[in-house]
Write a structure and sequence with these properties.
This protein is 46% helix and 11% strand. β1 and β2 form a beta hairpin. The longest helix has 18 residues.
Length: 351
C-alpha cells in the first residue's frame, strides 16, 4: 500500500489486482486534484506490470462511492480567475480518459452515492457493480454546471431520451434502474461485495464468472414505466420546447418534471442539451473530453456557477438568481462561445 490510512486515496496491490480506494468519507469521497493525480499515477504504474491483471475502484467507508468533484474547491478556484479550476478539470478528464482506454479490466463498485465525478470514474469501467445502496445522478444543472466527466458520451448513448431527462432534471437512479439502463453491468447485494473483491483479487481472469455467480435479481426498475413519457415529453431538441411540452401535457408527471426544471440554470440546461447532441455524433471519447474541457473552462467562470454554489452549497437558501434568468435569454451566440475551440496551447489532451 502507498500512503497512510488518512490519505484521500488508498493505493495497494491485493493478490493479482490493483486496488484504488477513495478515502474522504467526510466529503462523500468527493474528488480533489491530488486524488485525480494519485489515481492516474496508480493506473500508469500498473499498466505494464504483469503482476497486476485488473484494477478495482471502490471506497473505504460511508454511504458515498463518490459524490463528485469537490465543488467548493472548484468554485474557489474559479473565483480566483479560473486557473485552478482548469487544472482540476484537466486532471479529472485525463483520469476519465485513462480509465476509458485502459488495457486491463477495471471493476468499479458503485455502492452508494455515485454522482458527477463518481460517474466519471465508474462509467469507463468494463464492470460496473450496482447495489441496493446505489444512488446515481448527474445533478449539475442545479448549480450552473453541466453533466461533464463524459456525460456527453454516456448519457447521449442511453435508450430513447433518457439521457436528456437525466441531464436536465438531475434525477436519481437506484441500482436496479442503473442495471436496466446499462449504466451498471451487474447488481450485487452489498453484503456480497467483500466476497466479490476477494475472489477477483485471487482470480481476476474469472471476473465475469465471479460477478455473474454473485449477482441477484434486482427489484423492478421503476424508471421503465416512465420511459414512454420521457421519450415523448423530452423529445424536443430545444429546452424551450421541452418546457412547453411538459407544461402542455397536463399530467401529474409532466407537471412534476416542469417544477423540477424551473429552478435549474437555463444556461446549464441549454449547454447540457447541446453537449449531448454533439457527443452523440462523436466517435472518439477523447473528442468528447476535449469538448467538455472547453465547456468547463468557460462555464466555471460564468456567473451561474458561482451563484449555484452560493445558493445550494454555501448559503443553502436554494434560491439562485440565474444570469440569464430565462431560457430565451441564453442565445445561440452565447452557446457558440462556450463550445468554441480553445487556443491550441490550451486545448485538452490525454496527457
Amino acid at each position: 500500500m502507498t500512503g497512510t490510512n488518512d490519505d484521500p486515496v488508498l493505493v495497494r496491490v491485493d493478490g493479482k489486482v490493483g486496488r484504488i480506494g477513495l478515502n474522504r468519507p467526510q466529503a462523500l469521497h468527493a474528488l480533489t486534484l491530488p486524488m485525480c493525480e494519485a489515481m492516474r499515477a496508480a493506473l500508469n504504474s500498473w499498466r505494464d506490470d504483469a503482476a497486476v491483471e485488473a484494477v478495482i475502484i471502490d471506497h473505504t467507508v460511508g454511504r458515498g462511492f463518490c459524490a463528485g468533484g469537490d465543488i467548493r474547491a472548484i468554485a474557489d478556484g474559479a473565483a480566483r480567475g479560473g486557473a485552478d479550476a482548469k487544472r482540476f478539470f484537466l486532471a479529472e478528464y485525463r483520469l476519465n480518459h485513462k480509465l476509458f482506454t485502459y488495457g486491463k479490466p477495471v471493476i468499479a463498485f458503485m455502492d452508494g452515492i455515485t454522482m458527477g465525478g463518481g460517474v466519471g470514474i465508474s462509467q469507463p469501467a468494463r464492470y460496473r457493480i450496482a447495489t441496493e445502496n446505489t444512488r446515481f445522478a448527474m445533478p449539475e444543472t442545479g448549480i450552473g454546471l453541466f453533466p461533464d466527466v463524459g456525460g456527453g458520451w454516456y448519457l447521449s448513448r442511453l435508450r430513447g431520451r433518457v439521457g436528456a431527462y437525466l441531464a436536465l432534471t438531475g434525477a436519481r437512479l437506484d441500482g436496479a434502474e442503473c442495471l436496466a439502463l446499462g449504466l451498471a453491468t451487474h447488481y450485487l447485494p452489498a453484503a456480497a461485495l467483500l466476497e466479490a473483491k476477494t475472489q477477483i483479487a485471487a482470480n481476476p481472469g474469472d471476473v465475469a464468472a465471479i460477478l455473474a455467480n454473485l449477482s441477484i435479481t434486482p427489484p423492478a426498475p421503476s424508471i421503465m414505466a416512465d420511459l414512454p413519457m420521457i421519450d415523448r415529453l423530452f423529445a424536443a431538441d430545444t429546452y424551450e420546447a421541452i418546457l412547453t411540452a411538459l407544461d402542455d401535457d397536463g399530467s401529474d408527471w409532466g407537471r412534476k418534471q416542469a417544477a423540477i426544471l424551473r429552478p435549474k440554470s437555463p444556461q446549464a440546461c441549454k449547454v447540457a442539451l447541446r453537449q449531448l447532441a454533439t457527443g452523440a455524433a462523436l466517435t472518439d471519447f477523447a473528442d468528447d473530453m476535449r469538448m467538455e474541457y472547453r465547456i468547463a473552462s468557460r462555464v466555471a467562470v460564468l456567473p451561474d456557477f458561482a451563484e449555484g454554489v452560493r445558493a445550494v452549497i454555501v448559503d443553502k437558501d436554494n434560491a439562485p438568481v440565474w444570469n440569464p434568468s430565462t431560457p430565451e435569454g441564453v442565445t445561440p451566440a452565447m452557446l457558440d462561445a462556450i463550445f468554441a475551440p480553445l487556443p491550441d496551447n490550451q486545448e485538452w489532451t490525454p496527457s
